[in-house]
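Can't paste images in this forum, so I'm doing it all in text. The chain is below; anyone willing to post the predicted structure tokens underneath?
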Amino acid sequence: MKTIRGAITVENNDELEIERAVKELLTEILSKNKIKIPQIQFAVFTCTADITAAYPAKYAREMGFSAVPMMCAQEMRVIGSLPMCIRVLITVDADFTPKHIYLKDAINLRKDLI
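Text version of the structure:
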């Protein structure tokens, strides 16, 4: 079992922009880690408090994650933290070295993991 981390930012609290960002992030995670959706055990999404227009899991389901247990939560509010950020933690039933994916402004969150 392995766990993959990822994050992406959006510029606006807009449902379409959130949809595009979630799908871009998940597509990149699946591609770079060479995993298939049936291997995913569960996914946890968090959003910063300034993202309220949509649940990220909704768009994961649209991509085929319908049998994957998922949960969405609000990220902790920390002074100086990155705004407009969607994060995901995905646990996969596979044995490989995970490639963590950070896109757009989120690339600055964990340079040590990419």
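The radius of gyration is 13 Å. The chain has a mean pLDDT of 96.
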